[in-house]
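Before we proceed, please read the two lines closing this message. Let me know whether the C-alpha cells fit the sequence:

…
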Amino acid sequence: MRVLIIIAAILTAPGLMGSGIQPSEARAERPGRASQCFLPQTVRNYRTDGDHAAYVKDLSGRVFLLQTNGCRGLIVSRSIAISPTTGGSACVGEPVSIATSGPSIRGENNSVCTARIMKRLTPSEVEALPRGVRP
C-alpha cells in the first residue's frame, strides 16, 4: 500500500506529469539568483555592440548584457572567453574578465578586459535588439 501511495504522489506531482519538463528545467525557470547566472562554458553565441557591450547567449537560450569601459578588439573578435572573478558562475551585478581573440596576425586585437554583467534580458528585450547585436 505504501508503494502505491508513493507512486501516486510521483505521478501527480505538478510540473512532472505530462508537461515534458524535467525537474532541473523547472528549477531553472523559477525566479531567483540562479536564473540570473550562467556558466561561462555554456555560452554558445555572442554579439558585440561596439567595444563597450557584449550580449551572450547560453545553452538554455538566456541572453545577458555585459558592459565594459572599453575593450580593445571586442568588436572585431572571433571569439571571447569569459572568466568570473568570484567563482564558477557569472551572475548579474558581478564583474567578469573577457579575453578577446583575433582576427590578427600579431595578436594586436587580443586583449583581456573587465566587464560587469548588467542584466538578463527578457525575450521581448532580445527581440528589440538590432539584428546585428542579437546573439
